[in-house]
């Protein structure tokens, strides 16, 4: 099957962020995001993808006995008076966006959330992070903590997709990108564009031998997810050294072939743009990865039937 561009060409921007300081105000961050929206729009983007926890510093690196003492890092409404300018700017520029932030619900639940907003400024989708990495309790032996499991609940809402931007769009958040089930769940709903934000410290305390491989593993899992499901994947970092912790940048836009078509070159605020032909997905979804023809769910019972490893006797 030869590849000729289809009608559903969507220009997408990966809006990589550099560090956000502990004391940086919401309004200052929103200003940064608005200027990136405007740059992306001037470069033809119709959809701008921001990272995980894009409104604040990565606060789960700090231990606290009572997490409610850190509620100022959470959003209780979206948009709020501080974030409304982002929605207004998007509507004015006629671009959509996805935005990761810490969500505190009216009944006191905390999620690591991403929303999808269309070109009219309307929220069309909400995803809550499924795989919550790190630890629950203080582990002072680490040079810095990764306390997402203290701050956030695991979502039980799975991986929905939405019809938007002339295609089928899904979202995932940071650690979700390392799990093949994430992509397959959306692949089985015909996803054509997966938006992923991440905050990935270079130093992995439980096994520092993985540190030099952070960039490789980041691309490896997203490229495999794209190819094996015939979908575009946009992976967007909050990178650079934030409050003394160095995080991976290397944001990318990946085609359904698994090839990287655009990549950030800095560790700071940077807009990377690519034309994403959603019709390209068909070339994989209707050939090698024609699920209806080739998948063997009857051979995959363990995937949903068990959680951990059960070794043979
Ligand atoms: N934010 C996030 O999910 N980061 C994780 C770090 C895992 S190490 C505790 C990631 O998978 O990149």
Q: Which regions have little confidence, pLDDT < 50, spanning 5+ residues?
A: none
| Tally of DSSP β-strands | 14
What kind of oligomer do you see?
Answer: single chain
Strand order of the largest sheet: 5-4-3-2-1-14
Identify every distinct bound molecule in the structure, by name, code or SMILES.
4-methylsulfanyl-2-ureido-butyric acid
What characteristic shape results from the CA principal axes? globular
Count every helix, treating DSSP H or I runs of 4 or more residues as helices.
8
What CATH architecture do you see?
A: 4-Layer Sandwich
Mean of residue pLDDT values: 97
What is the CA-atom radius of gyration, in angstroms?
Answer: 19 Å
Assign the structural class, choosing from mainly alpha, mainly beta, alpha/beta, alpha+beta, or little secondary structure: alpha/beta
CATH superfamily: Carbon-nitrogen hydrolase
- CATH topology value: Nitrilase/N-carbamoyl-D-aminoacid amidohydrolase
Beta content: 15-25%
Topology as a string of helices (H) and strands (E): EHEHEEEHEEHEHEEEEEEHHH
Number of domains: 1
Which range best describes the helical content: under 10%, 10-25%, 25-40%, 40-55%, 55-70% or over 70%? 10-25%
Cα distance spanning the termini: 47 Å
What top-tier CATH class fits best? Alpha Beta
Q: Main sheet?
A: 6 strands, mixed
């Amino acid at each position: 099957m030869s590849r000729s561009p289809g009608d559903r060409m969507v220009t997408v921007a990966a809006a990589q962020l550099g560090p956000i300081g502990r004391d940086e105000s919401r309004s200052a961050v929103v200003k940064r995001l608005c200027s990136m929206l405007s740059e992306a729009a001037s470069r033809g983007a119709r959809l701008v993808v921001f990272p995980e926890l894009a409104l604040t510093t990565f606060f789960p690196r700090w231990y606290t006995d009572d997490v409610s003492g850190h509620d100022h890092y959470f959003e209780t409404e979206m948009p709020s008076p501080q974030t409304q300018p982002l929605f207004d700017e998007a509507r004015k520029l006629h671009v959509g966006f996805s935005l990761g932030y810490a969500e505190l619900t009216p009944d006191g639940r905390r999620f690591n959330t991403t929303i999808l907003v269309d070109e009219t400024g309307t929220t069309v989708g909400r995803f809550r992070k499924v795989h919550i990495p790190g630890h629950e309790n203080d582990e002072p032996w680490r040079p810095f903590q990764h306390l997402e499991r203290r701050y956030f609940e695991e979502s039980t809402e799975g991986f929905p997709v939405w019809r938007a931007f002339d295609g089928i769009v899904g979202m995932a958040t940071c650690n979700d990108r390392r799990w093949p089930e994430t992509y397959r769940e959306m692949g089985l709903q015909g996803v054509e564009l997966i938006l992923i934000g991440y905050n990935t410290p270079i130093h992995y305390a439980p096994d520092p031998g993985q540190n030099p491989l952070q960039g490789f593993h980041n691309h490896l899992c997203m490229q495999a997810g794209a190819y094996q499901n015939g979908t575009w994947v946009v992976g967007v970092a909050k990178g650079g050294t934030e409050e003394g912790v160095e995080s991976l940048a290397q944001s990318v836009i990946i085609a359904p072939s698994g090839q990287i078509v655009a990549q950030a070159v800095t560790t700071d605020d940077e807009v990377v743009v690519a034309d994403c032909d959603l019709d390209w997905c068909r070339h994989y979804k209707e050939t090698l990865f024609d699920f209806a023809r080739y998948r063997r769910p009857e051979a995959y019972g363990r995937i949903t039937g068990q959680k951990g490893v059960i070794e043979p006797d």
